Amino acid sequence: MNDKPIVEIYTDGACSGNPGKGGYGVVLRYKTSEGKYITKELSGGFSNTTNNRMEILAAIIAFEVLKKPCSITICSDSKYLIDAVKKKWLSSWIARGWKTAGKKPVKNIDLWKRLVAAMEPHDIDWVWVKGHNGHEFNERCDKLAVNAYNSGNLDIDTGFKNQSDG
What we know:
This protein is of the alpha/beta class and 166 residues long. It has 5 helices and 5 strands, in the order βββαβαααβα. Strands 3-2-1-4-5 form a 5-stranded mixed β-sheet. Helix 1 (51-65) packs parallel to helix 4.
C-alpha cells in the first residue's frame, strides 16, 4: 500500500509574444484523511521567456514546493511537457547526453534537468488536458499565469537564451 500523500497538480504557462513576457500558474490540491481538499495556488512572471519554458517551470515549481514524497497526478495542457515524459523523450535525451534524435542540443536543458531532479522522490501520473476548453483548474492556472506576467513584478529568466521556439 502506498502511504504517500495524494496530490493533484494542475499547471499552465502563458506568454504575451513568444518570446515575450510570460508566466506560470499552478493549482495544487491535497486530499486530507477526512476527504477534504486543501488548495494552494502559485504563480510567477518573467520579463522575457517562452511559453514552453513557462509550461516546464510550472511543473518544476509544483514539485519543488512539496515537502515530502507524494503520489501525484499532474495535469497540463502542454503536449511538449506531457509528451517529453510519457513518450520517453526526456529519458532518450538524457541517454544521448542531452541531444535530440537529430543530434542537436535539447532546448531548455536547464529546466529539463531541474525537472528531473524535482520529479525524483515522487510517483507521478502525467495527464494531458485540452487547454482553453472549460476545465476548471486548467482555466484557473491560465488566469494565474496571465495575471503573473501582467503584474509588472517580473523576474529575469536567466536560463532563456532568446530561443524563438524554445
